[in-house]
Recover the amino acids of this structure.
């Protein structure tokens, strides 16, 4: 499984990438939309984990852009707050998950696994 | 007792239940109340008074006219009849003296014939006499021996000399029957004169008055200039007695007057002088039924007026009191609403602030979390530190504290997020625990034991989370206020399958509520803690919220033993 993590907090995504790698999951990170788009054009990813709220852009918009390039991409969201309203649709289809920061890593890892199996 | 009744009926705005002092100062309900009562009373009573006054006045005038005109007409007609009666006699006598020479009339046979003729024509002639210029009756025909009698010194004789003719007052004479005399002076060619004098019985005059066919309450008679009865009166005296009315009051511009007799009874009367005679005709009437009807009408009208005013006043007071009470409550509600809105706004602001802070803290917290997690991973996955229990426990400690922070920030986010939510699935136990977490510190300080138990599996209910929070926070808060140090609050959850409802029982062992207060407990503005700043709105709002969620709320209490609130909530949200 290959995971792309997009969040403007570099320290967070770096740590997550390394922790995933310890568990045998290939992961890359991007701190901007541009980097994320560049990466997704280069490699195929199974899951993208997006920050819900990034400078000037929302996680949902990034999701749209990424899905244009890799339509089968599954999505997970991390957020500092917020309502789940927007995500009702995608969670119904089983295409995404949603976690509030700070996440319990075990929980996060399990959600990724679940998403991969679907 | 009386005080209690007065307290019961006196309107609430007079009791000084002013929770919102500024509002009360802006708006003085007592003055408003009195103002409304005065204004409505004035507006409704004034036309009533005017109408009554006008009505009575018009009616009085009408009755006066009804009484007066027939009376005036009768008096005038009768006066004319009497006048005619006397003038007729006078004219006959004048004709005789003009057409009978003195030499002739001196003869007893001639005078006798005239006497007989007159008696045949008029009937009531008593006698006839001729008096010469010396005052001596030189010829006389009649029932008495009056020939040769000297009248020179008598008043009537002097009067005739001046006035040429004279009608006397009524007198009784020898036979003790009332009669009067008519005397006519006739000059003779040699400068001498003689007087023809006749005595007329008044019986015909009395008959004339009798022919008026007056009713039993009326009386008609003739008076002379000195108010002496010339004909008998039915009520006031016999012939030659004096008629003495008292307290004469005359209606302006009218011939009708009122007087009272010696017994104080009121009469109305009209008087008219009979032309060419010393007599006046008088008609007296007891105040008529119409007139007495007027006084009854006056009394009845006044009684009706007083009753009407009393009813108007009662109604006005009741309506004004209700009106002002409504305004008072509306104002209180408005004030309470403003208060509540301010409070809600404050809560919302605090909520937003809390959410913002939580969000901001979540990001660094996430970094701490993942960084510490990474360190743990590095230790765990590398052989070098795997066995270092101390390091691992330190890292775990960091992760545990991050977890604690997360619980707090997540709860804050949850609370803020639910300020404006709709129906969602709610786990009541979790929600109750959340609510209790706000009171955790107080529970610790006051050593209050709070337990949540459930008798069976409780389904998730579809409801409004924030409203539920508000409901339970309020009731549990009240329970906290009721219990003493070391008290107990037991919350029991139960699922009622047949009703598809969840029953939440919140039981405390506090001071309890008295039965009379228990009845009013959900009424707005009812509070036993007004002096401590209670608005009396908490439970009424709670009641409203439960109703909004299609639930039920009940309460049981015993003074000294404690209170239990039961809240029933439907499992499935029903469309409102």
């Amino acid at each position: 499984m290959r995971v792309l993590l997009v969040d403007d907090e570099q320290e967070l995504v770096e740590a997550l990438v390394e922790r995933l790698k310890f568990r045998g999951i290939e992961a890359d990170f991007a701190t901007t939309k541009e980097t994320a788009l560049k990466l997704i054009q280069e490699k195929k990813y199974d899951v993208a984990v997006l920050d819900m709220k990034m400078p000037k852009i929302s996680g949902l918009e990034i999701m749209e852009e990424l899905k244009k390039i890799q339509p089968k991409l599954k999505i997970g969201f991390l957020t500092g707050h917020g309502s789940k309203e927007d995500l009702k649709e995608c969670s119904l289809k089983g295409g995404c998950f949603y976690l509030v920061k700070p996440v319990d890593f075990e929980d996060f890892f399990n959600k990724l696994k679940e998403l991969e199996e679907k | 007792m009386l005080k209690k009744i007065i307290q019961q009926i006196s309107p609430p705005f007079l009791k000084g239940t002013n929770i919102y002092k500024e509002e009360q100062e802006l708006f003085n309900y007592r003055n408003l109340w009195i103002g409304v009562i005065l204004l409505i009373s004035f507006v409704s009573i004034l036309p009533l008074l005017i109408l009554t006054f006008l009505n009575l006045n018009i009616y009085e005038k009408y009755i006066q006219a009804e009484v007066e005109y027939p009376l005036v007409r009768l008096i005038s007609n009768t006066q004319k009849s009497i006048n005619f009666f006397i003038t007729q006699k006078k004219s006959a006598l004048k004709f005789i003296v003009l057409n009978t020479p003195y030499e002739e009339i001196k003869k007893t046979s001639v005078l006798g014939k005239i006497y007989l003729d007159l008696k045949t024509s008029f009937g009531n002639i008593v006698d006839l006499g001729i008096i010469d210029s010396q005052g001596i009756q030189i010829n006389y025909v009649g029932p008495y021996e009056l020939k040769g009698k000297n009248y020179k010194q008598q008043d009537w004789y002097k009067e005739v000399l001046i006035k040429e003719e004279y009608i006397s007052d009524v007198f009784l004479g020898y036979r003790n029957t009332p009669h009067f005399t008519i005397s006519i002076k006739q000059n003779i060619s040699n400068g001498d004169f003689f007087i023809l004098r006749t005595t007329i019985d008044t019986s015909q005059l009395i008959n004339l008055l009798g022919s008026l066919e007056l009713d039993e309450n009326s009386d008609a008679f003739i008076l002379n200039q000195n108010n002496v009865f010339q004909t008998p009166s039915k009520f006031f005296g016999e012939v030659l007695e004096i008629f003495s009315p008292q307290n004469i009051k005359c209606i302006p511009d009218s011939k009708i007057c009122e007087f009272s007799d010696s017994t104080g009874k009121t009469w109305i009367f009209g008087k008219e002088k009979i032309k060419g005679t010393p007599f006046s005709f008088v008609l007296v009437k007891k105040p008529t039924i119409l007139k007495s009807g007027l006084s009854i009408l006056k009394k009845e009208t006044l009684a009706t007026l007083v009753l009407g005013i009393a009813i108007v006043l009662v109604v006005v007071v009741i309506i004004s009191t209700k009106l002002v009470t409504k305004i008072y409550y509306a104002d209180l509600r408005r004030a309470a609403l403003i208060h509540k809105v301010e409070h809600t706004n404050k809560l919302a602001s605090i909520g937003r602030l809390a959410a913002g802070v939580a969000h901001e803290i979540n990001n660094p917290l996430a970094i701490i979390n993942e960084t510490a997690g990474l360190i743990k991973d590095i230790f765990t996955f590398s052989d070098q530190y795997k066995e270092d229990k101390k390091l691992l426990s330190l890292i775990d400690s960091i992760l545990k504290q991050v977890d604690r922070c997360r619980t707090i920030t997540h709860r804050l986010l949850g609370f803020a997020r639910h300020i404006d939510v709709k129906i969602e699935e709610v786990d009541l136990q979790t929600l109750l625990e959340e609510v209790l977490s706000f009171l955790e510190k107080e529970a610790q300080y006051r050593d209050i034991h709070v337990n949540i138990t459930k008798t069976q599996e409780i389904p998730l209910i579809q409801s409004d989370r924030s409203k539920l929070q508000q409901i339970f926070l309020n009731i549990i808060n009240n329970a906290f206020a009721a219990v003493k140090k070391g008290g107990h609050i037991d919350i029991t959850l139960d699922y009622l399958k047949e009703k598809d409802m969840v029953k939440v029982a919140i039981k405390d062992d506090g001071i309890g509520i008295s039965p009379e207060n228990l009845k009013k407990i959900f009424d707005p503005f009812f509070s036993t803690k007004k002096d401590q700043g209670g608005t009396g709105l908490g439970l009424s709002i709670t009641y409203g919220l439960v109703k909004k969620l299609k639930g039920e709320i009940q309460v049981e209490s015993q003074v000294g033993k404690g209170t239990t609130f039961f809240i029933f909530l439907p499992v499935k949200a029903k469309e409102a």
The mean pLDDT of chain B is 83. The first strand of chain B starts at residue 125 and ends at 132. Chain B touches chain A through 26 residues (CB under 8 Å).
